[in-house]
Amino acid sequence: MKAASPHIENRFQLLEQQLHIKEDELNSLLQITQAINSNISSHGLLKLYEDILIKQIGVNRIAVFVEIDEWICTNALGITIEEATAFAKNTLSMFKQLTNLEQIRHPLAAQFKVVVPVYHKNCPLAFTFLSDVDSTKDFTLDEKLNFIQTVSNIIAVAIENKRLFRAQVNQKLMKSELQMAGQMQTMLIPDKLPDDERMSFSGYYSPHQEVGGDFYDYIELNDHESIFCIGDISGKGVAAALLMANFQASVRSYSDQQPSLNTLLEHLNSRVNEITRGEKYITLFLAKFNFTTRQFEYVNAGHNPAILLYDGEMKFLDQGCTILGMFEKLPYVNVQSMKLEKEFIAFCYTDGLTDIENDKNQSLKIEDIISILKDNHKLAPNEITNQIVAFLNAFKGNRLTNDDISMLTCKIY
């Protein structure tokens, strides 16, 4: 039998070597796939990526940048993370595609040969800087770069999917916690208000988010005196809701001691300062009525003026003191007192009501609410509230609200 020529034998050896290289590539890709399916950590994936680049490509200098809140160097070989960050971090945005740093004479060419970016829908996911990426007799430069780019894309997308999954889980957890907080807060809003021959109340509460910082309450002090109030905590969300719950408990606790309104407001202001240390504020309208003497007292602590309808006249209840929590000690407290012998209506609300806008960016006017109150003053408070809510829905149309909305309508017969 005739022996194979040296040329054919060399060709056969070359094909065999290339086959081994392709097998190694497939094994590397299989290893990555198995790692992803095993839900290996992002750190583990990056370490596997580094090992493949070292063993498969033969590089001895690597710097991998991944965005975790900000762009950070997660892996570095042949260079410290600090050095890589100093060299490359501020240049990442300029690389839109695989780039040979030597060909463009980039300053980083002294440290690295190529940079491999990974993008998804024009959004960068990762950047890999490599040195010693050269062609060999078995493996051309283009082949090496194609393999690097393939592996880089798989690793970067896997890490991004992990990040998105964590974000989705955190979002679901937060939503669940907000829903629970919202349910707890709803329990604090009185679901049953007085409705008898002496008085009738109606409340309305619509948080902007799952939880909010508005509240209203009714407190019976004794057989002939009662307190009602409405308040608004600065801010939104869980923090505001927690402060609201604590403040509402304080209002009830101090009210049970039946101090004067001056003393009550001073206690509440001190309590707000203790809780928030000057970082949050509370506006409050608080009123007390004596059914025997028919004496009506109120204090407005920087809140939207309540509206009093009495004997055919309308009056804004805007006197009182500053916002609670703004000063360690209230500079003044002006308790207002008046005798209301006849039937009257007191309408209280938070600023979310007047912040409502329609599709034409027009804000709701309190004069519109006053007209509704005057036109419907003979109705029961719950019917008045229904009239106002219907007007609000018609006014805003499809426009979303910007803030929590609370209303408390009180009629004393």
Please explain how this structure is put together:
It is a single chain. With 413 residues, this protein is α+β, with helices and mostly antiparallel strands. The chain has two domains: 12-166, GAF domain (Beta-Lactamase), CATH 3.30.450; 178-412, 4-Layer Sandwich (Phosphatase 2c, domain 1), CATH 3.60.40.10. It is built from eight helices and 16 strands. It has helices at residues 6-37, 42-57, 81-88, 141-188, 237-256, 261-276, 366-375, 381-396, and strands at residues 62-68, 70-77, 99-100, 114-120, 123-130, 199-206, 214-220, 225-233, 282-290, 295-301, 306-310, 313-317, 320-321, 336-339, 344-349, 405-412. The strands form three sheets. Strands 7, 8, 9, 10, 13 and 14 form a six-stranded mixed beta sheet that branches. A five-stranded antiparallel beta sheet has the order 2-1-5-4-3. A hairpin with a 2-residue loop joins strand 4 (114-120) and strand 5. Helix 2 (42-57) packs antiparallel against helix 4 (141-188) and helix 5 packs antiparallel against helix 6 (261-276). The longest helix has 48 residues, at 141-188. The radius of gyration is 35 Å and the shape is elongated. 29% of the residues are buried.
